[in-house]
Design goal:
The complex is a heterodimer of chains A (300) and B (140).
Chain A: H1 4-60, E1 79-85, H2 95-112, E2 116-122, H3 124-132, E3 137-141, H4 151-167, E4 172-182, E5 185-194, H5 199-209, E6 218-220, H6 223-299
Helix pairs in contact in A: 1-5, 1-6, 4-6
Chain B: E1 5-10, E2 15-21, E3 23-28, E4 31-35, E5 42-54, E6 60-73, E7 76-80, E8 84-86, H1 92-109, H2 115-139
Parallel strand pairs in B: 1-7
Antiparallel strand pairs in B: 1-2, 3-4, 3-5, 5-6, 6-7, 6-8
Helix pairs in contact in B: 1-2
The chains are: A alpha/beta (300), B alpha+beta (140).
Chain lengths: 300, 140
């Protein structure tokens, strides 16, 4: 049976935990703001890039024989690379689990088809998991997601992936990242990076909103050469966006998790206080009975 | 002259320049080109170098670009670069250190004729242009 002292100690402990979770909530909130600003800052570049790429791809599509290697799907897929983005740190609810589950399902599917899979881990949590499960880790990048990082990170990772594809080491590259839908919703998504797909889709959307756009540019150097320069960048842009969204999602997930934890602490304190008060009252009543009993005995 | 042309320089991190200009001069893949309003639209890759432009007041300004692309429309120039710096954002000390590093690496790698050499060469060009911009500030 818990003594008064024990209950009191427990209350103090929960209060301390509450302070920590509350602080973590606020830190996450401030980091989230930074991450969101970074996402905003990236948008003009991404939009313009998509627009230019779309107009170029429209003109190159006619000549399929000489299509750039990065656009051509391989007929036989033997090996694939998967970039798995997770956070470095925990205490963010089911954020990492969701991402890993998504990746694992995909990997299993591919493995069943007899495709060899290699993983590029961005983020400690995913790496640790893959290590435990003895997955084939090709590369790892720790200390990026959720921290300050520049476009060059995406270039590093992306150029590695592209080289692997062009060398024939890998036939397809995918990326699992978290899409930041809203503060309350972060959805793990899987995207194909290489060979590049979905350029045409952007173009459709672009045409309707940008009326003053003139598609017939003079191109210097040729369309093909420009395309050859832009396609790798498209991969970098995708990876960078994935990193930004995953980072933002991580902070949002942590904020929500810590908010929950703080509320739970509050509930626990309330119920523990109740138990404490009851126990104290019981002790007082018992003592009173003793005194009364003693007095009665002396009288007798 | 019919008026000013919009100049936009954007990088993944931020929009570096959004300003009107009387004239824009940029380092195209096939040599420097100047753009006035009403230019025919074209698209070009850029080399590492300087974008120079005159603001509406006629003051010449310089921006460093680390390669990228320029899209020219009759009334607008958009530059997409992986990084770009205005004069005040350039860290001269850092650029000098980078220059020295690149030179050392080139001296080491020149025998091998490999990627390291090419990378160092690019780094060298970057550092030289950055320093050049910073120096003109001092002279002005």
């Amino acid at each position: 049976m818990a003594t008064l002292k024990d209950i009191q100690r427990k209350i103090v402990a929960v209060k301390k935990t509450q302070k920590i979770t509350k602080a973590m909530n606020m830190v996450a909130a401030s980091k989230l703001r930074g991450a969101q600003e970074k996402m905003e800052a990236f948008r003009p570049y991404a939009d313009k890039f998509a627009e230019v790429l779309a107009s170029l791809s429209e003109r190159i599509a006619a000549d399929e024989e000489h299509a750039p290697a990065l656009l051509v799907p391989r007929e036989e897929v033997k090996t694939i690379d998967l970039i798995l983005m997770t956070s470095d740190r925990g205490l963010c609810g089911s954020f990492n689990t969701n991402l890993i589950v998504k990746a694992e399902k995909f990997l299993k599917e591919k493995a069943d088809q007899g495709v060899e899979t290699r993983i590029i881990c961005m983020g400690r949590k995913g790496r640790d998991y893959c290590r435990r499960r003895k997955y084939n880790i090709k590369d790892q990048h720790i200390g990026i997601v959720g921290a300050r990082f520049g476009f060059n990170v995406a270039v590093n990772v992306g150029s590695g992936v592209i080289d692997g594809f062009l060398d024939g080491q890998t036939d397809e590259v995918y990326m699992v990242s978290s899409e930041f839908v809203s503060m309350a919703r972060q959805v793990p998504t899987i995207k194909q990076l290489v060979p590049i797909v979905g350029v045409e889709k952007v173009e459709e959307a672009e045409k309707t909103e940008d009326v003053g756009y003139i598609p017939e540019h003079i191109c210097e150097p040729s369309v093909e050469e420009l395309m050859a320069e832009m396609l790798p960048k498209q991969v970098y842009v995708q990876i960078y966006r994935g990193l930004l969204e995953t980072s933002t999602s991580e902070h949002a997930a942590r904020m929500a998790a810590m908010d929950n934890a703080t509320t739970n602490c509050k509930d626990m304190i309330t119920s523990l206080s109740l138990v404490y008060n009851k126990a104290r009252q019981a002790a007082i009543t018992a003592e009173l009975m003793d005194i009364v009993g003693g007095a009665e005995a002396l009288k007798g | 002259m019919a008026g000013n042309i919009m100049l936009e320089v954007v990088t993944p991190d931020k929009s570096v320049v959004t300003e009107e200009a009387q004239i824009v001069v940029a380092p195209g893949e096939y040599g420097e080109f100047g753009v006035l309003i009403g230019h025919t639209s074209f698209l070009t890759a850029l080399k590492i170098g300087l974008i120079r432009y005159k603001d509406p007041g006629g003051i010449e300004r310089v921006v460093f670009v680390n390669g990228g692309f320029a899209e020219v429309l009759p009334n607008k120039v958009t530059v997409l670069a992986e990084s770009a710096d205005r004069r005040i954002d350039i860290d001269v000390e850092r650029a000098r250190a980078a220059l020295k590093r690149a030179e050392e690496r080139m001296a080491e790698a020149s025998k091998k004729e490999d990627i390291d050499f090419r990378r160092a060469e690019i780094a060298l060009a970057r550092a030289m242009h950055r320093i050049r911009i910073a120096e003109t500030r001092r002279a002005a």
